[in-house]
Amino acid sequence: MVGEKGQPVMSSEGARALQCGITTLVTHHPIRPTSCLLRTLRSLQKASGSECHTVDLRVNGTLDARTREQATKLLDTMSGGGVITEYGENRYPCVPRIESVARAHGENYKWWAKLDDDIEIEPEGWDALISCILAAEEMGHEVLCAMADPGGERGPQVLQPAGGVLQTLAVVPEGAQNCGDARWVPCEFVGDGATLFKMEAFESIGYDAAFSLGGADIDLAMQAKLAGFKSLFCGPPFAEHHHKECAPDGYDSLRYDASMIAKSSQAFRAKWGMPCAQLMMFEGRGRR
């Protein structure tokens, strides 16, 4: 089931994915423990919710035979099945995002979600985020996405130039709105670790391939801000982050590849006329 140069390999139930409501992109690099990936997929199995749901699993490398078999069995239980794409090499985070959004466009999904392979989504997660988006739209907000609170590690943020550098600054979650058992706060940046997007919004904005490693989510948030979209930060915690457990030795050398981050940083300066503080921080942590 190895996809040749990024060609998708569909699970036995994958044909059901057509016309589904939600497609969730999960990206995985084999340097991470496979137990993390399988736990993420099991959480999606429980979080199918009221919408038809398929999973778009993209691997920056190849899976071993046992993990591929286990992942396929889990995808087959999704209401819309799933697709596994094994690139055979590290494509970095942005390429899988762009290709997954394009696939979702082609198959007429209403929602596109992104879930990191070190995060578990709660069973009610996607339904709660959909409810928050619909409630915010009733109040007049144009909404790009809603992020599931991962348990206090990241909160709602705003994008603010300070001293000629773009900062992502945490904001006090005042004025939270209730929606059933959920609450939401409008903001400008939430990241895409456990996030549900409106496909309609991607008609006017999208991920930029210039940000192959680092900055793609901030660039998307900048585009959204200019287009008048809001992001939502939604709780109670609808996700759980297992970062330390799923970041073994060698992982930082991939995540903070200094040369790749430097290219993204240069692209950000060229596009937005200012450096990005987050990318500058990542450059500092990179291994050369």
Layout of secondary structure:
Elements: E1 9-10, E2 22-28, H1 34-46, E3 53-59, H2 65-76, E4 82-86, H3 94-106, E5 111-115, E6 119-121, H4 125-138, E7 143-148, E8 157-162, E9 165-170, E10 177-179, E11 182-187, E12 194-198, H5 216-227, E13 230-235, E14 239-241, H6 251-255, H7 258-272, H8 277-285
Parallel strand pairs: 2-3, 2-5, 3-4, 7-13
Antiparallel strand pairs: 1-4, 5-12, 6-14, 7-12, 8-9, 10-11, 11-13
Description:
The protein has 288 residues and is of the alpha/beta class. The protein has a single domain, classed as Alpha-Beta Complex (Spore Coat Polysaccharide Biosynthesis Protein SpsA, Chain A). It has eight helices and 14 strands. A ten-stranded mixed β-sheet has the order 1-4-3-2-5-12-7-13-11-10, sandwiched between helices. β3, α2 and β4 form a beta-alpha-beta unit. α1 packs parallel to α2 and α7 runs antiparallel to α8. The chain is globular. The N terminus is likely disordered.
